[in-house]
Amino acid sequence: MAMPWIYAVRLVQIVFGLIVVALTAYVISTFSYWWSFSDTVNFLLFLGCWTTFVATPYLLAAPIYFPRLAHRFVIPAVEVITMIFWFAGFIAIGAQLPAPAYCTWGGCRALQAVTVFGAFEWVLFVVTTYFAVMDLKDHRHSGESAQKTQHNAHLGV
């Protein structure tokens, strides 16, 4: 029995989220640079926690173990919100960083890594969001065609 590809993607999302949490926690703990108190770094810490401990476990476990909590509109909504958050987060931190030639200390290098992992998280959530929205679209079309089929069957009776 083959494992669906989405489980591997969710695992990678969780691992990348943990990496972002660790790196941003390191930057916040340094207290020696101006971005140790930056709202962008704090947002990325929140976003790593959101992805690792809330969104991805929900997206992974709800359809299997809690089907009543896995509403067909909630799963794409969580995907879209998380995707938008990652896009905003990695763009914001990337815009604040100095050029790579001037980024020579540990905190700055950690934020460069956070930017890269944030971009990868965004790409992963773009892919999973696409499939969640397509699944919702297919579900809507299959429901409409089933209703039309039943309606046409009653017309001939």
From TrEMBL:
Pfam assignment, any one: MARVEL
Extract the InterPro entries matched here. Marvel (IPR008253)
Q: Which keywords accompany this UniProt record?
A: Membrane, Transmembrane, Transmembrane helix
Recorded GO CC terms: membrane
Which membrane topology term applies here? Answer: Multi-pass membrane protein
Q: Which residues form the MARVEL domain?
A: 7-131
Transmembrane segment boundaries: 12-35, 41-61, 73-93, 113-133
- Where is this gene product found? Membrane
Name under which the protein is recorded: MARVEL domain-containing protein
